[in-house]
UniProtKB/TrEMBL annotation:
Keyword Transport: yes
InterPro entries, alphabetized: AAA+_ATPase (IPR003593), ABC_transporter-like_ATP-bd (IPR003439), ABC_transporter-like_CS (IPR017871), ABC_transporter_ATP-binding (IPR050763), P-loop_NTPase (IPR027417)
Residues annotated as domain ABC transporter: 6-235
Keywords: ATP-binding, Nucleotide-binding, Transport
CDD domains the UniProt entry points to: ABC_DR_subfamily_A
Species per Swiss-Prot/TrEMBL record: Croceibacterium soli
Protein name: ATP-binding cassette domain-containing protein
GO MF annotation terms: ATP binding; ATP hydrolysis activity
Keyword hit for Plastid: no
One of the Pfam families matching this protein, by short name: ABC_tran
């Protein structure tokens, strides 16, 4: 099937009392991609996932998944979707293997012990298969949640803060599993507070705040359009004023004229070139400096800036 696997148009959700959780969201998800949805707490991430998965009814707008209207064809659509929610929810006295097998049956899938074993092994749960869920650590319980979501082989998988509260080793294991799922053709939408994970794993990134999508684009494009370079140059002697040769560049003096700061560029390399030109101008004009520190803006810098400005650029 060509076209997006998920198509959201003008989606709104207003709760009783007037709180608007979604304010006209438009979003297409491409088949086979990893899409990271970033936003602060209360931005609308979980509400958006809940609307797609049929856990809540939108106030307005449409959602199509696999070419079908989600509200009219909820059962057939939901069968093809997996969800790992933020909150852990289990029968704590159930065995791990029984819980995952039961989830598969809930979606009308025939029993397949070999597939259940494959899922459990992929998440390092096979040795714990006979343990009761209440006996597991928090990180292992989260693995079981992922196993349950994968048990019916979904084509579209939602991961709502999948690595929240887990240790670094477990987080890496989960991301290896997510990468393997993508290799097998599963489309993945995740929300996360770990922006470095989105920067590492996602193909595209969306930033949501106060129910509005501020930005949706390929990760590399975002970095190119909104990234920047900062160079901090510690001068040997303080300057009272900027030399005329530096006026074409975005520079300023800090710390009483002892530090010259350049901030500019767009992530395309322009910032690095201009920072080099600033340094050359200092050398040409005999202005001595003792140290240089440069850094490129990260996805986190861009995210924080967008949320603070609240500008819709999607």
């Amino acid at each position: 099937m060509d076209g997006p696997i998920l198509q959201i148009r003008d989606l709104t959700k207003t709760y009783k009392g007037g709180m608007q959780a979604l304010a006209g969201v438009n979003l297409d998800i491409r088949r086979g991609e990893i899409f990271a949805l970033l936003g602060p707490n209360g931005a609308g991430k979980t509400t958006l996932i809940g609307a797609v998965c049929g856990l809540l009814r939108p106030t307005g707008g449409t959602i199509e998944a696999f070419g079908q209207d989600v509200q009219r064809h909820w059962r057939s659509v939901r069968r093809r979707i997996g969800l790992v929610p933020q909150e852990l929810s289990f029968d704590m006295f159930a065995r791990v293997d029984h819980s995952v097998t039961y989830s598969r049956g809930m979606f009308g899938c025939a029993p397949d012990p070999a597939r259940i074993e494959q899922v459990l092994r992929s998440l390092s749960l096979w040795d714990k298969r006979k343990a009761k869920i209440r006996e597991l650590s928090g990180g292992m319980k989260r693995r079981v949640m992922i196993a349950k979501a994968l048990s019916h082989d979904p084509e579209l998988l939602f991961l709502d803060e999948p690595t929240a509260g887990v240790d670094v080793e477990l987080r890496r294991d989960m991301w290896r599993q997510i990468d393997a799922l993508r290799e097998n053709g599963t489309t993945i939408i995740l929300t996360t507070h770990y922006i470095e994970e989105a920067q590492e794993m996602a193909d595209r990134v969306g930033v949501i705040n106060k129910g509005k999508l501020l930005l949706v684009d390929d990760k590399a494009t975002i970095m190119a359009k909104l990234g920047s370079t900062e160079a901090r140059i510690e001068l040997a002697q303080p300057l009272a004023d900027l030399p005329p040769a530096l006026t074409p560049y975005q520079v300023s003096l800090e710390r009483g004229g002892r530090t010259l700061v350049y901030r500019g560029g767009d992530g395309s390399g322009k910032g690095k070139r201009e920072a080099a030109a600033v340094i050359k101008a200092l050398v040409d004009h005999g202005i001595a400096f003792e140290a240089i520190e440069t850094r490129e803006s990260s996805l986190e810098d861009i995210f924080v800036d967008l949320v603070e400005r609240g500008e819709v650029t999607a």
